[in-house]
Amino acid sequence: MLAECPRPLGGEVMASRIYSPFSYPLPRRARIVPVVSIEAERLVATFPLVWRRGVSGPELCVLRTLMEDGTGFVAGSDRALALLPLIFQAYPLLLPSDTALAPSGNPRLLDVAVADAPTDAGAPLAGPDGRPTRATELRLKALEIFERDFTRTLALGVALETHGLLEPWPLGFDLGLGRRCDIDDLLVVPTSAFDGPRLAPVLAEFGIAAAKLLAMHRLSLFRAGPLVGAARAAVAATVAPPAAAARR
């Protein structure tokens, strides 16, 4: 669960105001974010689509940036609502992570993190009549979509691992100025698996939707190149140009 201070959605919490996801640190900075298959097509043209081992098995994720400080995003992707994963479109509303496989009886949560960069006055969670406001309803809808597709998406990851179809995808890059990026917990389907019958059992179980997702996964890995360029540009931007330094 990507959250700072989650609390059950109810009681006095319902008096809280919520803001644009970009008003909060987590949606602006998180570099590896869990996603579900239904949103993959919207994201793969910009971010690598990979797996990372979670509590219940390999979780589908997108790698949004190589940096951990909220920089290094490919131009145009850092503040685009259309490129936010569903769980951040819903933020600061959350699903409890330890019960993600059986969510039907679990409450939603609110991350009571501080909106450190608000762009407007926000909206209340509930109106005077106690009913969710439009802003709350939109976030609950995003959670519902994620929740509905999570179990099947996770099952696909488990099946890939069971059939030996996931391998480590370590990333290590020199970003310049003594900075490095090293990420060693990502998993991908090896290229060789696409050239033979190894994927057949998984495709037989999960059908055409899985075939489409795996094809997008394979193509999305090329998006790592722009992420490296964006990270190096972000590191270089931390050094003041010589002319500016001289003026000081």
What strand order characterises the main sheet?
A: 3-5-4-12-9
Hey, roughly how much beta strand do the residues contain?
Answer: 15-25%
Low-confidence stretches: 99-103
Mean pLDDT: 92
Count every beta strand, where a strand is a DSSP E run of 2 or more residues: 12
Structural class computed from helices and strand pairing: alpha+beta
Q: What is the makeup of the main sheet?
A: 5 strands, antiparallel
Q: Over the alpha carbons, how many angstroms does the gyration radius reach?
A: 20 Å
Helix content: 25-40%
Could you spell the SSE succession in H and E letters? EEHEHEEHEEEHEEEEHHHH
Shape: globular
Question: How far is the first residue's CA from the last residue's CA?
Answer: 44 Å
Tally of individual domains: 1
Number of helices: 8
Description:
This is SapC family protein. It comes from Plantimonas leprariae. Pfam families: SapC. The chain is an alpha+beta fold. It has one domain (6-233). Helices cover 33% and strands 17% of the residues. It is built from 8 helices and 12 strands. Strands 3-5-4-12-9 form a 5-stranded antiparallel sheet. A hairpin with a 2-residue loop joins strand 10 (171-176) and strand 11 (179-183). Mean pLDDT is 92; it is low at 99-103.
